[in-house]
DNA sequence: AACTTATTCAACCGCACGCAG
DNA sequence: TCTGCGTGCGGTTGAATAAGT
């Protein structure tokens, strides 16, 4: 989109050299990355793997700060990135997750393999927000931070639109930490209220906004048709959870793994089974966002098995959109 | 064709957190 | 306990591009 700026060098960082504290300016580039810089960083990462970003910036011969290198890698150079427009499934998932997580783009991105938080954030701010606004709704996506902490009562819509007032949920067992990495036990602790199988509590066709008492829209529509065009059709009943609710992360730990066949986990929510090729792929590897090690050798973005993904993410709430 | 406005998205900035010394 | 460093996150900016007039 943008053309690289090659002369955008700024005096950003002062360094003290060894000669009695004389100041030496380190020239760090800012602005768009040139293809040459991309190549340098890519080559370095492929050869040496991820490490200290400031070291990477230095050792790769880049006049960039480590932070910039990290961002460039995560948002652009990472080989497991999925390019192109968001699919309707992804759109639904983003909206859905945003209704739960608010602006926690990194957590949302962790559930959308191949997508970055920045990408999702941009997509949300530029596209979805606008569509929702155009749909005549102004209250669809309040953040968890906006929730009314006094409201312990959960409202859930049921089938034909009736309302069920849930008894106060014991939310104490839910991982409230904003970091998703250690929330894998939430389902069991919580009695797994987010398990779509608990249909006596929740209707699968509706989103429950856990952020506050705001109406959410019905996702019963087929994904393919009029993705967001139907968002004007709002469900008036919602579920509200107080506090900051963290959805169990798909990526959980940093155990070294690979794409070998038959990887299984005691905690099945941490892995994606790819039934087509008889492989189980650790979600962390797919996502790549939180992991410190990139080993994406064989994984091809764009070939994600959505059904496999969603079917095995038992802890992911309300994955209720219809797959084609 | 020229100009204006809207949209997109890469990148920066500041802050918070964790960890080591 | 304090401090500095590295990292990650979310908000924001601004240039490039598209669309409209």
TrEMBL record:
Keywords: Activator, DNA-binding, Nucleus, Repeat, Transcription, Transcription regulation. GO terms for molecular function: double-stranded DNA binding; sequence-specific DNA binding. Residues 137-148 have a biased composition (Low complexity). The keyword Transmembrane does not apply. The keyword Zinc does not apply. GO terms for biological process: positive regulation of DNA-templated transcription; regulation of secondary cell wall biogenesis. Residues 25-77, 78-128 form the Myb-like domain. One of its GO terms (cellular component) is nucleus. It comes from the Eukaryota. It is found in: Nucleus. Residues 25-77, 78-132 form the HTH myb-type domain. PROSITE patterns: HTH_MYB (PS51294), MYB_LIKE (PS50090). Transmembrane segments: none annotated. SMART domains: SANT (SM00717). Residues 134-156 are annotated as: Disordered. This is MYB-related transcription factor. It comes from Salvia miltiorrhiza. The gene is MYB94.
